[in-house]
Amino acid sequence: MNSALNIGGLELSGPVLLAPMAGITDAPFRRLCRTYGASLAASEMTTANPGLWHSRKSRDRLRIDTDLSPRVVQLTGNDPAWLADAAARIQALGADIIDINMGCPARKVCRRQAGSALLQDEELVRRILDSVVNAVRVPVTLKMRTGTDPEHRNGVAIAKLAEQCGVQAITVHGRTRACRFEGAAEYDTIRAIKQTVSIPVFANGDIDSPQKAASVLEQTGADGIMIGRAARGQPWIFSQINHYLLHKKLLPAPSVDRQRDMILSHLEAMYCFYGEHIGIRMARKHLIWYSAHLQCNKAFRQRAVEAETTSEQLQITRDYFSGRDDGGNRDARLTSPPVRVQWQKRTKRKLVANNSMATESS
Questions:
Q1: Model-level pTM?
Q2: Which of 50, 224, 282, 317 is least crowded, fewest Cβ atoms below 10 Å from its Cβ?
Q3: For residue range 156-185, what is the model confidence (pLDDT) as tens digits?
Q4: Active site residue: 104, 110, 165, 179, which one?
Q5: Same-domain check for residues 237 and 152
Q6: 36-39 contacts, C-beta under 8 A, 24 or more apart
Q7: Which domain holds residue 10?
């Protein structure tokens, strides 16, 4: 692990990064993860198609003014000219790093020959990376998978090509496009990539604990790691991993009072960022993830996701932590094991749209 880690001259505060995840890593969540020790937090992937840049979703994804530096925006697409133009526009908005998505396995993305579908066309990969690198002054990075399928793991070839084009760092998810998120991540290809290129390499995939982070770094020789799905509901995982890598000791989760303050602050940040209607919808899935790490959570989870207004949702959360919901007492929350339950089907259906593609880049 490199103690003086930097990307294109931009020094990082540590080796643990937040993965870009559509529907999750919006501005409020990125800032939260940065405060807990993520050294980089890329935006949700943003289309390079200029015809879609004026949609509310694209505008929200390009709001990086409140991000801590270095500010990273991830782009997706398959047209070299569009990607180059989008990169230049994003640089003008204040981005410090442009990340290119060649890792997303979502079918709706791959059907457009974008995301991890690009890995099957090395010449197109070269043209895209050449175009983007030459269009901007800021560092360009690449998020990729190990290949198209287990029989065609061309990750090493793609990584060499990326370095030749001037890409300044690579993050590799330890699965192929065909694997999506099934089976276990494999790290041999990441190790081979690290041994082949001289630019920083970050390992990604199935890293869900400090011990796993240390193990993956040892297995791969990578310069750092990227955390995706494991950050949902526990953004403090970054501080825990950083602490373990430095001291080889486990850092406990934040106290219940600190978790309360963090969750309430996160809710208010989402309401402010999105407004009432979208804010409450975005908050529901985060509350589900938070509740998985809380004690006596069944009634809280149910009520929080069914709240109809932001003020109601906020009050339900306050009541949970003060021990006023469902007759529970606050002390019991510190000693009882978390109750992991399925929420009602009606509530689950409400969240399907919000959760679509949510894990595509983790």
A1: 0.88
A2: 50
A3: 999 999 999 999 999 999 988 777 788 889
A4: 104
A5: yes
A6: 36/235, 36/236, 36/237, 36/238, 36/239, 37/13, 37/238, 37/239, 37/241, 37/242, 38/227, 38/231, 38/238, 39/5, 39/12, 39/13, 39/14, 39/15, 39/224
A7: 6-247
